[in-house]
Write a structure and sequence with these properties.
single chain; mainly beta; 18-stranded mixed β-sheet; 6 helices; 30 strands; 33% strand; disordered N terminus
Length: 500
């Protein structure tokens, strides 16, 4: 598909494009007219497509979209009315349900294994979504929107489509292929279909008329349907072009007709950001024009809505001073990093050697995963982390409490916490190349209030007990307020603090 990838741009009418951002992605979708690659149908939201051609060899900085938290008070996906502290209890309960379902699923080496696909991905439990405008509509129809969870642990983008016999609830209308002038179902003669079928845990067969997929996750989330292609509209990352939008395509995705989700987040699917090695993921499909690098900044619940963002292409490259560590095992789909220890208030925990190592059989290791809200740490490291935090909180006069909701914690309680002035202990991950990923305070703690009016400060870490060895995860919450840059061509993970 790379040789056929094209772009076009247009100025957006004031009312035509809105980037919500939930840490969900909204895409407008459309595809080559009559199946001819390189053609594009001008929907009513295009002002003058004849003036908007951009060849794939033209230098473009990349793409951007807004990102927000699903539970933000202004988020359209937030379905409850309680305050932010109450929301944390719902988040914990949702995560625990996800964990419980995972442990009842088929176990694969190294983690709570993923049914069929071999991925540990936590799928619809993801809390960060981005809203892309996706597509080119037929005349007299509205452009269609899909809201997708950002997932660096999944290689395949899919979302629900209309007329599905089995679908889970989502906030907006299901995508209708019939309303798109550019949607095209792929078949076994198409390269993207062949790429899907190469992954035997996703591809389920192809004929001269259709290409099929099925992807399933450890928590019973699953999607099955047709592999198709469409045109996707995203904003340019050029800050000087004042609202320019790029129509990109054709790009492959999964049009889901049989779908199930364990966590009803309101989103309609998943944007796959991992390295599939076969050209499936969203960044990989952009490689020919923008480069396969990407970056994002996830913000906390109390930050302004839409203040997070995701960048694709060269524009995602950080500038100024930044830290980095190598990405390991490029032959795998996941973003492994080489962690050797953790610290609390700059004091190393001295986690036993080998705790975070990946073994030759593929078990263990540490991955960076935006699709997992919380971080998972093997028992050998988790016990030391809790002990170090407890020591500091004891010195601060804050009593220790078991997790108010069993399984996530630990917590410390008080009738009041001064969020701005309390000297919260600082937690960091340490890498073999000498670099340190220091978590922001917002990325280290969550606050929520029980009916007793006691305010709990809890850490979003979960003890991973299915080992050793076991897979460790640096989850989305631990990445809050830190710009994370995934440089696939150079196999590096870089980060900049306080850049959201």
């Amino acid at each position: 598909m790379k040789e056929n990838f094209q772009t076009m741009t247009h100025k957006v009418r004031a009312c035509s494009v809105t980037f919500h951002a939930l840490f969900y992605i909204v895409l407008w979708i459309g595809d080559p007219v009559n199946g001819n690659h390189g053609a594009i149908a001008a929907g009513p939201h295009l002002e003058n497509p004849s003036e908007a051609n951009i060849g794939r060899n033209q230098s473009l900085p990349g793409l951007r979209a807004s990102v927000s938290h699903i539970y933000h008070k202004d988020s359209p996906l937030r379905t409850v009315t309680c305050d932010d502290e109450c929301i944390h209890e719902l988040r914990i309960n949702s995560t625990l349900r996800h964990m419980d379902l995972s442990t009842r699923s088929v176990k694969l080496p190294g983690w709570r294994g993923v049914v069929n696909s071999g991925y540990y991905v936590r799928s619809m439990a993801a809390e960060w979504y981005t809203t892309f405008i996706v597509g080119i509509a037929r005349p007299d129809t509205r452009p269609q929107v899909v809201e997708l969870a950002l997932d660096t642990g999944s290689p395949f983008t899919w979302f629900q489509c209309q007329n599905c016999p089995t679908c889970f609830p989502q906030r907006i209308k299901l995508f209708s292929p019939r309303k798109s002038s550019t949607y095209r179902a792929l078949n076994r003669n198409d390269q993207y279909c062949a790429n899907v079928q190469r992954l035997r845990n996703i591809g389920t067969g192809a004929t001269p008329n259709a290409c099929w997929y099925r992807i399933a996750y450890a928590d019973i989330t699953s999607s099955a349907g047709m592999v198709a292609e469409e045109w996707f509209e995203l904003q340019s990352a050029n800050t000087d072009d004042d609202g320019q939008v790029l129509a990109l395509g054709p790009m492959g995705f999964g049009c889901g007709f049989e779908n199930e989700a364990s966590v009803k987040s309101g989103a309609g699917g998943i944007m796959g950001l991992s390295n599939s090695r076969t050209g499936l993921s969203f960044p990989e499909q952009l490689e020919g024009t923008f480069g396969s690098m990407f970056g994002y900044c996830l913000t906390a619940l109390n930050e302004p809505e839409n203040s997070g963002y995701v960048f694709f292409g060269k524009a995602s490259t950080p500038t100024g001073s930044y830290a980095w560590t190598p990405l390991l095992y490029p032959d795998t789909m996941y973003y492994y990093v080489d962690v050797v220890d953790m610290s609390v208030n700059d004091r190393l925990l001295s986690v036993p050697a080998g705790t975070f190592d990946r073994y030759s059989n593929g078990e263990g290791g540490v991955v960076v995963d935006s699709g997992s809200p919380y971080s998972y740490i093997p028992s050998a490291g988790y016990i030391l982390l809790v002990a170090a935090l407890r020591l500091v909180f004891d010195q601060l006069g804050s009593p220790y409490y078991p997790s108010p909701t069993s399984g996530v914690g630990p917590c410390w309680g008080s009738k009041s916490f001064d969020k701005d002035n309390f000297p919260f202990p600082r937690v960091a991950w340490h890498f073999r190349n000498g670099q340190t990923l220091a978590l922001s305070i917002a990325g280290t703690y969550v606050l929520y209030r029980k009916r007793s009016k006691l305010v709990y400060v809890c850490v979003p870490f979960v003890e991973a007990t299915d080992g050793p060895p076991t897979l460790s995860v640096i989850g989305g919450h631990s990445q809050i307020n830190t710009y994370m840059f995934f440089d696939q061509p150079n196999q590096r993970l870089a980060w900049i603090y306080n850049s959201c």
